Amino acid sequence: MKTKVLSLLLAALMLMTTLASCTTLEGDDKGAILDMHLTTEVFDFDPQLSMTDDAQLKYMSLMFEGLTRINEKGEWEKALMNNYKVEVDDGEKFSVLIDMNITRWSDGRTVQAADFIYSWKRLLDPDQKWEGASLLYDIKNAKAAKMGDVSIDDIGIAAVDTYTIQVEFESKVDLDGFFEKLSSICLVPLREDVITRYGDTWARKTTSIVTNGPFVPKEIITGTSVRLERSTYYYLDPELEEHLDKYVIPYRLQTKYDGGDLSMASGGIFYDGELSLADRAAYKDNALVTDMMGTHTYMFNTTNKLFEKAEVRRALSLALDRNAIAQIVTFAKPATGYVPYKVFDTAAGTSFREVGGDVISASANLSEAQSLLSAAGVTKGSFSISVRNNEVDLAVADYVKGVWEGLGFTVEVKVLGTKKNAEETVDDLFQDAYEAGNFDVIAMDTMFLSADAFGALSQFATAYSGNGVDMNSSTYDLYGHISGYSNADYDALVDTANTTYDRAARTAILHDMEKKLMEDMPVCPIFFLQDAYLFSDELSDMVTDYYGVRHFNDTKLNDYMTYKAATDTAEAATPAEAAAE
User: Fold this and answer.
1) Are 114 and 165 in contact (CB under 8 A)?
2) Residue 351: which region, alpha, beta or left (left: phi > 0; alpha: psi -120 to 50)?
3) What pLDDT does residue 335 have?
4) Considering only CA atoms, which of 429, 330, 444 is closest in space to residue 397?
5) Can you say how many angstroms the Cα of residue 351 is from the centroid of all Cα atoms in its chain?
6) Would you call 399 exposed, middle or buried from its count of C-beta atoms within 10 A (0-12, 13-18, 19+)?
7) How far apart are CA 273 and CA 271, in angstroms?
């Protein structure tokens, strides 16, 4: 009976002639439904969370939009920004006015300047832990507010009117560099009324999530799928009779976690953005591969007695053959530093990694590793590697465990999954462990929040970690980096870079920061992330941005009404036929 139904589907596909090239939707047709395996599971869609997995960036880039974007060539472009002008440049004061395009949240309310002001002040709240805070330190009093030295209302940002933002800077900054940072997913607007009402779980339920991007989640089935639908209000003018697909063509992205065949007729998927480990070798020559701005890393808890000495951390790093690990992953480049290739050097489109060269070796050096451990007096001990329940991360962890046990340590791979909470949503135990610093070693994708190396490198300095201030202490102590790493020389380098506005001079300091970080090794880079994807011949017009993620606003599904008719035919099968399948 399954063969009979499949024959009916194929016959329908051959007979139907309705084309998806029409731009006018007719009747109750809302557009194509794209079945896909987008990425691994995400449990919280708050764009300001610590990015510990590339899946978070892939999802949230579909849901939120900032003032700017960076295209595939590395050029910043206007997104929600309509225009800008320098308001004051008198040598003592430097500020700009940013006018916004008019668009709407997924609940119909317009996106306003106040939404950006709230979002940025949320990052800079000294009571909160947000890693993206230092991206805003060019703004007057931003760093001081994060340190608790001035009021949050003293920050140099204001809503001049409903759709105009005024930004005053600490000094005359490189505006292109600032606008490149504004493309970061953690600098998108957020709704104060929604977050105030729902608290920390606002981005976990479809009933409370509001987005300003092209898609909004309509159904979240833990462990199975997420249904994203076109936002009804994305740039559409309610006073004009505009087509629903004017700015976003697909009606729905039905993302499945179990993947499937790239075959419309067999009920499979049209796009696979997360190939299984078993399939990677088979599709190595067919997949489209894009470098991402991210590095798979192993972070050490330096407050653990085993890892308090830099020599031990360097030894563990030296023992790893990153070339072998890249072969395990297939779609990856062995890490030769902390900063990946796509991060800018002295100008947009230049590569920090290519200019900086190899800071660490991709090959293993076991004899030097053993010498360092012996000199440090640490040749044994027990610890765990915390890892997501992800087959790629697990495969890498198994390799690392074997190498480190060969050095004399006892290593456990601790898989952190999820658990249901009182609000009937899911807690991501991996994310919770990372943000609490509750780990010995933790394996994660460190996603670079902008194309500027400063944002990621500066987080290891105490005043730039984004973790805020202990407001209960009498001396208002700063919370440092989650790893526990602290080094006065490193902090001094970061301070100097933060107040150096000549891009070439600043970049030279950033290279020194990376070298120092790799000497101290609180974080061990493993491989540079690549995104490998496959898609059906039925799809066209997907866009890849500089961060290495796909955008589906303009994606077309050829003959999608034919596919709809075939699907309707299958769904209309009698109960007996359905049971026989």
Assistant:
1) no
2) beta
3) 98
4) 444
5) 20
6) middle
7) 6
Alpha-carbon distance 215 to 119, whole Å? Answer: 20
Rounded to whole angstroms, how far apart are CA atoms 14 and 296?
46
pLDDT band at 474 (very low <50, low <70, confident <90, very high): low
Q: Tally the C-alpha atoms within 13 A of residue 415's C-alpha that lie toward its C-beta.
A: 10
346, 375 contact by CB (below 8 A): no
CB-based burial label for 228 (10 Å; 0-12, 13-18, 19+): buried
- The encoded tokens of residue 314 equal 């360097």
Helix (H), strand (E) at residue 427: strand 426-428
User: 377-391: per-residue pLDDT in tens?
Assistant: 999 999 999 999 999
Residue in this structure with the two tokens 């050095």, named with its chain if needed = 407
DSSP string computed for 40-85: S--S---TTS---SHHHHHHHHHH---SEEE-TTS-EEESSEEEEE
pLDDT tens-place string over residues 172-225: 889 999 999 999 999 999 999 999 999 989 999 999 999 999 999 999 998 889
Residue type at 32?
A: A
Phi, psi of 169 (to 5 degrees): -105, 165
CA dihedral defined by 185, 187, 193, 199, rounded to 10 degrees? 60
Q: At what angle do helices 310-318 and 366-376 cross, to 10 degrees?
A: 160
**Beta strands 164-168; 215-221: pairing state:** unpaired
The CB-side HSE value for 533 (13 A sphere, CA atoms) comes to: 24
Specify the DSSP class assigned to residue 135: G
Compute the distance between CA of residue 531 and CA of residue 566 in angstroms, rounded to an integer.
32
Cβ-proximal residues to 398 (8 Å cutoff; 6+ apart), any chain: 413
* H or E segment and range at residue 96: strand 94-100
pLDDT of residue 479: 87
Q: Say if residues 555 and 542 touch (Cβ distance below 8 Å).
A: yes
Backbone angles phi, psi at 361, to 5 degrees: -90, 140
Least Cα distance to 408 among 441, 370, 371, 439 occurs for: 370
pTM exceeding 0.85: yes
Cα–Cα distances (Å) from 344 to 94, 273, 511, in that order, read 25, 25, 12
482 burial (CB, 10 Å; 0-12 / 13-18 / 19+) is buried
Would strands 550-551 and 418-420 be described as parallel, antiparallel, or unpaired?
A: unpaired
Nearest to 338 by CA among 368, 310, 296, 308: 296
Please name the residue that has the structure tokens 């902390």.
338
